[in-house]
Specification:
By secondary structure, the protein is α+β, with helices and mostly antiparallel strands. It has one domain (2-73): 2-Layer Sandwich (S16 Ribosomal Protein, Chain: A). 23% of the residues lie in helices and 40% in strands. It is built from 2 helices and 5 strands, in the order ββββαβα. The chain has helices spanning 50-59, 65-73, and strands spanning 2-11, 14-23, 34-40, 45-48, 62-63. The chain has a 5-stranded mixed β-sheet with strand order 4-3-2-1-5. Strand 1 and strand 2 (14-23) form a beta hairpin.
Length: 83
């Protein structure tokens, strides 16, 4: 199963992440199928390639919970919340 998930890059105590497409059985920092963006949690800066994200989601890639919340904040994925 394909997953949209974060791959850690950066130095010690200075993390930054790339948003990648990977098989769910691959290691966190393994070789990704595609890189579609990045996220810096310290500065709260992010940039995603909208076309690629939507394309992979249409192919069936499932975002992790953290990625789903980031995509909601960026207004890429609209989640139907039931009260």
């Amino acid at each position: 199963m394909l997953k949209l998930r974060l791959k850690r890059i950066g130095r010690k105590r200075s993390p930054s992440y790339r948003l990648v497409i990977m098989e769910n059985s691959f290691r966190r920092n393994g070789k990704p199928i595609d890189e579609v963006g990045f996220y810096n949690p310290i500065t709260k800066q992010y940039k995603f390639n909208l076309e690629k994200v939507r394309e992979w989601v249409s192919y069936g890639a499932q975002p992790t919970e953290t990625v789903k919340s980031l995509l909601e904040k960026a207004d890429i994925i609209i989640v139907d919340r039931k009260n």
